[in-house]
Design a protein that fits this description.
By secondary structure, this protein is α/β, with parallel strands linked by helices. The chain is built from 13 helices and 16 strands. Strands 3-4-2-5 form a four-stranded mixed beta sheet, sandwiched between helices. A four-stranded parallel beta sheet has the order 7-6-8-9. It has a three-stranded antiparallel beta sheet with strand order 1-12-11. Strand 8, helix 9 and strand 9 form a beta-alpha-beta unit.
Length: 416
């Protein structure tokens, strides 16, 4: 009898121990045993080793691409246009592991404080995996530290301020060419394509115009050319013949001008009467557009300018048709960054597809650090605006500007 009682007590005690050492509580993903209903295997191993962990998109939800853009206020046309271009990219991108993409554009009003507010909002949404933006440089700079902390890669279509890629950000990249890049390409085109060896450089005294003229002067000289004159003109004046006549005595083959269309028109109209009838007027993206052609007439024939409009291609023609059909206006009408908006979003979504993993629970896991690295190391991505290959600091535009020439009263793409 005593032996039976002792055996019974032993069995009961063993059962109690077994129950205490059973499966871990639901939701605990800390051990690697996937038996007995444990859901640990639902979370991909890469999430544990990734520096920022994983964005988790539950089944039935969308993979969000954020954007900070001016959607109201004086600069709304830029934000509306770029977001519309990106929306077409989202439509074209299809799905990743059965999950659809979604563009989430938030209004910054183009201001730095708005950029920071939008960044804080997007960074707290676990289904936002990347940022197609921001749009303006000030807003972008304010947002960068927030995205750096959150591990959200950025691809700006339009933030061109050169110092942005010198700030040490791991997440900021841009598809737009900078003013420094534009000036370098212009100098190269003048020297190597047009074959000029003597030019003069003019500017309007502003940071944009003078910055361009400075780069052209330095780069053209480095190539072996001679800059025979470097002068500033006063914006708003209606006659620059004195400045041009002084330059004519030095026989420049071209007049490079960094500035805007109003002054560019006056310069082009004054060149013939100043003894520069055989010199070429070479402007920048600030002088490109219908106004220059309309106001210079015959004097504008043969003038050059840089433009953000990409060269013609099947991809551009398709996009232009899709944009017109969707929004009732032509691409490039609201801003010159329509195509860059598409490309910025397209690059990000392509990289999400490279790193995303479908979990055992049906959720999509996007390792944030891996995505940051994938975007920064983008190479050879074929886009509407050209080849996208990112440098180690996030400069991803290798195509540079497209140059146009006035022929028969209209801008047409110049020879490459």
């Amino acid at each position: 009898m005593k032996k039976s009682v002792l055996f019974f007590v032993f069995v009961v005690f063993a059962m109690i121990l077994a129950s205490c050492n059973g499966a871990a509580p639901a939701g605990d993903t800390s051990n690697g045993d996937s038996s007995g209903g444990d859901t640990t295997s639902a979370v991909p191993e890469v999430c544990a080793s990734d520096a920022f962990g994983c964005a988790v998109v539950p089944a039935g939800q969308t993979v969000k691409i954020g954007m900070g853009a001016p959607l109201t206020g004086d600069y709304a046309s830029f934000g509306v246009d770029i977001s519309q271009g990106a929306a077409i990219a989202v439509k074209d991108a299809g799905t990743v592991e059965g999950f659809a993409f979604e563009l989430v554009a938030q209004d910054t009003q183009g201001a730095p404080e708005g950029g920071a507010a939008v960044a804080n909002k997007l960074a707290t949404d676990p289904t936002v995996v990347a940022i197609a933006g921001h749009i303006f440089s000030g807003s972008t700079e304010a947002a960068m530290p927030i995205y750096d902390k959150a591990g959200l890669p950025m691809m700006s279509p339009s933030a061109t301020n050169p110092p942005l890629t010198t700030l040490g950000s791991k997440v900021f990249n841009r598809i737009a060419f900078t003013d420094a890049v534009q000036g370098k390409f212009a100098a190269d085109y003048l020297y190597n394509k047009l074959g000029f060896r003597k030019i003069a450089a003019l500017h309007d005294g502003g940071a944009y115009g003078q910055g361009l003229a400075d780069v052209v002067q330095a780069e053209f000289t480095a190539l072996g050319g001679e800059v025979v004159g470097y002068e500033a003109v006063t914006p708003g004046e209606t006659d620059y013949t004195a400045t041009l006549s002084a330059l004519a005595a030095k026989n420049p083959e071209a007049i490079y001008f960094g500035g805007y269309v109003a002054e560019g028109v006056v310069l082009a109209n004054n060149m013939k009467q100043s003894g520069l009838e055989n010199a070429v007027f070479f402007g920048c993206d600030g002088t490109f557009g219908a106004e220059f052609v309309e106001k210079t007439g015959a004097n504008g024939e043969g003038a050059y300018a840089a433009s953000l409009i990409p060269p013609q291609s099947e991809a551009k023609l398709k996009f232009d048709a899709d944009y017109l059909a969707a929004y009732g206006v032509g691409a490039g009408t609201l801003s010159p960054y329509t195509w860059s908006g598409y490309d910025a979003a397209a690059v990000l979504m392509a990289k999400v597809k490279e790193v995303a993993v479908l979990g055992g629970d049906g959720s999509l896991y996007v390792p944030r650090g891996a995505l940051v690295n994938a975007v920064r190391t983008t190479s050879g991505f074929v886009s509407i605006t050209g080849d996208v290959t990112c440098s180690d600091v996030g400069e991803c535009n290798t195509a540079g500007p497209t140059f146009y020439i006035v022929q028969d009263g209209d801008w047409v793409q110049a020879e490459k």
